[in-house]
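Quick check before the chapter quiz. The format below is the same one you will see on the exam, so make sure you can read both the input and the output lines.
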Amino acid sequence: MVQIFQLDPMIISPTKIPRIILFIFLVLNIGTVQGQQADIKRELKRLNAKIDRERVRTDSLETQISILLPDLRNTLIATVDAKKQTDSVAILLINRINTLQNKIRMLEDKSIYTDSTNFVILAQLMMIENKIVTLTNSFTEMYSLRSEKRGGVIKTKISPAEYQRRYIEALSYYQNSDYNQGIKGFSELVLEDPSNKLADNSQYWLAECYYSTKNYKRAALEFEKVFTFPGTDKDDDSQLKLALAYQSLGNLVKAREEYQRMVDYFPSSEYYSRAKESLKQLSIE
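Here is the expected output.
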């Protein structure tokens, strides 16, 4: 507390006035400084208290960090390991996908090849089946001729009995796969007596001999001639074999046309369903 002293002006000399003023000034300044120091001390105390609180918070955070740090480290390690494992799994999946894609391509190629192979096998099976049917018909024909009673003698270049004998002989050559002898025998029969009741059959088996030697072009020509014989019972057989001959030649357009004629003109033939199936397969091609 600054105290104000009252001085008697009568007892103060002029020479002492500056000293008194200086004294008063000092007293006043000391009071001000003391007040400022008190304020500074309070501020310092407040700041120290705040520092202490921050230090406590820092210590608490450090404690929490020291507690959490191992867990964070373990989590980071686990995350890194999981990332490595995920990358490894991803690589395995990519490799697996690539393998599957390659297998799919191989299966697609194999499927195309299989379809083509199946078509070839089907054609071969049909040819084998046709060969069996043809041989069966030839044996049936031969049996019928051998059991047939010989009728009256008709004046021709060759007698019916001789024609029948030579016909059976040529048919035996065909059945024994001696196609050259069969061609010779049937050709002679067709030329010597084209009016004989077996002439259309001779023409048909002549074509079959050429077909069996894989001379499909000549076979097609000979099968065409069968239709020139009126009332022939070999028309549906010839129509089917004509289509097969063109198919074997690779002329699929012509083969389709002949199969279509088979379907259109011989609906009651035993070869109808076979021709229809072949036509379907060729249409897919």
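If your answer matched, good. Residues 149-155 have pLDDT under 50 and may be disordered.
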